[in-house]
Design a protein that fits this description.
Helix content is 40%, strand content 18%. By secondary structure, it is of the alpha+beta class. The chain has a domain at 57-164: Glutaredoxin, CATH 3.40.30.10. The protein has a four-stranded mixed beta sheet with strand order 2-1-3-4. It is globular. Residues 26-54 have low confidence and may be disordered.
Length: 169
């Protein structure tokens, strides 16, 4: 209580119009939002890949990873993927810009590739090499399309075409 008692402070009460406060707050929020949308500098959000990759694609790999013993579905995915790639991308295969492979992930000599793609079971993977590095993705949709060869082929063709054109979306 030493020195705090006895001080008198002048207090001014200001009445704030709620409508004016709401309009002011809305304008400030709008300006902050718009400034973020029009900014051309800054880094993109973490863990988001741009829809179109500006760097040219050097190579695309389509790899069917399988076990020593393959089930009917695994064989179908490998055969359909290989048939689609061979039929639709002859020039890209010939140039080496597109590579297709069947890889037994249980064999020790394939360990580095299995690690690079983080393979955990039978699967179809697409790897894209560009100036920005290596981008990989597992295509799980193929498992739902194995009974429809036309839909399977259309899906794989579209996906490979996008990746060859630098579209990583």
């Amino acid at each position: 209580m030493h020195g705090t008692r006895g001080k008198v402070t002048d207090m001014v009460l200001v009445r704030i119009d709620p409508l004016r406060a709401l309009i002011s707050a809305s304008l400030v929020l709008l300006l902050l939002t718009m400034s973020g949308c029009t900014s051309t500098t800054g880094s993109p959000a973490l863990h988001q890949q741009p829809a179109i990759n500006s760097s040219p694609v050097e190579k695309v790999e389509v790899i069917h990873f399988h076990r020593n013993q393959q089930c009917t579905s695994c064989i179908a995915i490998g055969d359909l993927a290989e048939g689609t790639v061979n039929a639709g991308f002859r020039d890209e295969l010939a140039s080496g810009r597109l590579v297709f492979a069947h890889v037994n992930y249980e064999l020790p000599e394939n360990a580095a590739l299995v690690t690079e793609y983080n393979v955990t079971g039978p699967s179809l993977w697409i790897g894209v090499f560009d100036a920005g590095g290596f981008h990989k993705e597992e295509d799980i949709k193929v498992w739902y399309l194995i009974n429809d060869e036309k839909a399977f082929s259309a899906h794989i063709t579209e996906l490979i075409t996008k990746r060859l054109n630098g579209d990583l979306s």
